[in-house]
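User: Show me a protein chain along with its predicted structure.
Assistant: Here is one chain, sequence first, then structure tokens.
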Amino acid sequence: MELGIRGRTAIVCASTAGLGRATAESLAGEGVNVVVCGRRGELAERIAAELPRAIGVGVDLLTADGAARLMEAATAAFGSVDILVLNGPGPRPARVTEIHQAEIGDAVESLVTAHHGLISMALPTMREQRWGRVLAIGSSAVVAPIRDLALSGIGRTAFAAYLKMLAAEVGADGVTVNMLLPGRVATERVRHLDAARAARSGRDVEAVTAASVADIPMNRYGMPKEFGAVAAFLCSDRASYLTGSAVRCDGGLSPVL
């Protein structure tokens, strides 16, 4: 299927690894100009060099000028930004009774506030040209809380509410706003979470992974490229009537409709 986004420009946040990188690669494969970014600038540049038309930008969106520097780099290289993929590292794994008050604020700061600044800069042009895509990489914890990921669940659920309200405000301007929810995808983050669960329970990592796989109807972890393909579709011209949605890409893991 031709996705109709060749020549568009996308910023993909936290795209030096995992789901962000898979999304950047999928968009690049569709002919999109891609801004690869992350705190490790040299790595971002190295990944960008492997894509057809991309730049790498080292930036920390939690700094006061991070969002502005990223937007400036993107517009200097490619002009206006048409697609904004929001992504960021998840907070530490913990249960609700194990988190500290300050960590709640930190989770909201990293998963909501930092992204709000970038959205605010990208939206005016998207609305003016009457075409734009805002896609957030979330977590299945948004629809079915995960006991060991309290901080991630708090921050990402708050962001999901923000995005739902935003979608209602900008839909008439041709801007779609969605969240894509991964389940257990074979990334470094998931390997880290499996190791943390193993340490907590006293089991080996292989046993923890096997138990997780057993809960997935498709009986395997997803592959990053499978997630990236769905992300590219949600950013495409073909998804023009899909907005305000939290779409699951989890192999059927979430026990909700």
